[in-house]
Amino acid sequence: MPESTQVVLTEVEAGQDLPDLSYDVSASTIVLGALASRDWRPMHHDHDFAVNRNGVQDIFLNTPNQAAWFERYLTDWTGPRGRLGRIKFRMKTSVFPGDTMVFRGRVEDVSTDDTGCGWVNVQVDLKVGDRVVTTCEARIAVPAATEDNPWDRRGESWRP
Amino acid sequence: MSEELPADIRGWIGEERYHEEGEFPVEMGYVWTTCSSVENGNPIFWDEAVARELTGGPIAMPTMISLWFRPHHWAPGRTREVQPLQVHFDLKARLGLPEAVMTDNTIVFGEPVRPGDRLKTCQVLHSVSEPKTTKLGSGRFWEIEVRYTNQKGDWVGAEHYTGFGYKREAPEPASKGGHDA
After folding, report:
1. What sign results for the dihedral spanned by CA atoms B127, B130, B131, B136?
2. Dist. CA A122–CA A137, nearest whole Å
3. Residue B96: pLDDT over 70
4. Do A91 and B172 touch (CB under 8 A)?
5. Whole-angstrom distance, CA of residue A80 vs CA of residue B161
6. B22-40, pLDDT tens digit by residue?
7. Three-class SS of residue A156?
8. Do residue B37 and residue A32 have CB atoms under 8 angstroms apart?
9. Set of chain B residues whose Cβ sits within 8 Å of the Cβ of A93
């Protein structure tokens, strides 16, 4: 992502689609994500445990790493001044090695709060084929104007 | 399972429990490893000059907030198993519900987390439902908040979890939703 990539609030409108992100998941993706997030639980690295104890088809992507994927997807679109306020996600099923995961987002709402901070609400579906794996509602601050920077906001001027 | 919620669990509701400090200070190695794991090329994490200009210096990916409290897999002298989200495991044990899934997770982000920060946390149980039966089994839903602050007392974020602890009533299906916890 170049530093010059930057979405400004005035360029965004409800109903706008974000570019898809597609990624082929391997066992290394799952294990790297689990260990990067210090999640040592065996269902994220031990195939036998996942199959015979958890009753699933393979090791699967862990929750904190899914959150990191959603962050990457959103800030790829906003650019580096995009600042996450909150994300809410609901996991319906799991991502396994061999899956191609696709992140697909749509702008639900655009607003400016009392402090002048620009906010974009985005609905993101993480899908594998036709299967929706996880749904995510995100609220992310973007510059209200070219010279604005949401990262400058502190205390009462940051209302996530 | 009794319909009545045990008095000790009722007493946990709204109470800040498990005040803890992270086992190690926030450091960039984990930030880069996490960015690498999701191929996140955002220059605020990789380019110090950009970080200085935009975020007042290096910061961690906001979604890494829970990472700083995940205990080492092993530590010298440790005599008991240490769990992140201990209130969740306390509920499972106290209510006799051996299985659990997390159904919803909300993360709210405050002040940026920076290398060198020593973060603190506590857990608050907000609610426990009446007994419920789902396709997974019979149990209860609960809502837990994890609060995070830095060494200066600044609020850096919070996580809200909805969990469902349950007993199985049928053989495990071949594939199921939610994530084991």
Report:
1. negative
2. 6
3. yes
4. no
5. 28
6. 999 999 999 999 999 999 9
7. helix
8. yes
9. 175-177
List the single residue in B33, B64, B180 with the smallest CB-CB distance to A43: B180
Q: Closest chain B residue to A30 measured between Cα atoms?
A: B37
Answer yes or no: is pLDDT of B175 > 50. no
* Structure token digits, residue B180: 């084991």
Query: Which of B38, B56, B174 is closest, CB to CB, to A72?
Result: B38
List the single residue in B36, B44, B106 with the smallest CB-CB distance to A80. B44
The average confidence (pLDDT) of chain B is 91
- Domains plus CATH for chain A? 9-157 (3.10.129.10)
Lookup result for tokens 């290398």: B115
How is residue A112 written in tokens? Answer: 């400016």
Yes or no: say if B42 and A1 are a contact pair by the CB < 8 Å rule. yes
> What tokens appear for B12 in the block?
């946990």
Mutate which: A46, A72, A88, A146, vs B, most B CBs within 10 A: A72
Given an 8 Å threshold on Cβ–Cβ distance, is A84 in contact with B33?
no
A-chain residues near B42 (CB < 8 A): 1, 72, 75-76, 80
Using a CB-CB distance cutoff of 8 angstroms, which residues of chain B are in contact with residue A36? Answer: 30, 33-34, 36-37
Q: pLDDT by residue (tens digit) across A13-29? A: 999 999 999 999 999 99
Backbone Cα Rg of chain B: 19
Closest CA to B162 of B138, B146, B175: B146
From CA B164, how far away is CA B128, in angstroms rounded? 10
What span, in angstroms and rounded, lies between the C-alpha atoms of A126 and A134? 5
Say whether A151 and B112 touch across the interface (CB within 8 A). yes
Task: Name all domains of chain B by residue range, CATH numbers in brackets.
Answer: 7-171 (3.10.129.10)
Q: What is the ipTM of this complex?
A: 0.96
CA distances from B57 to A78, A94, A143, B46 (A): 20, 36, 19, 11
Nearest to B54 among A35, A69, A151 (CB): A151
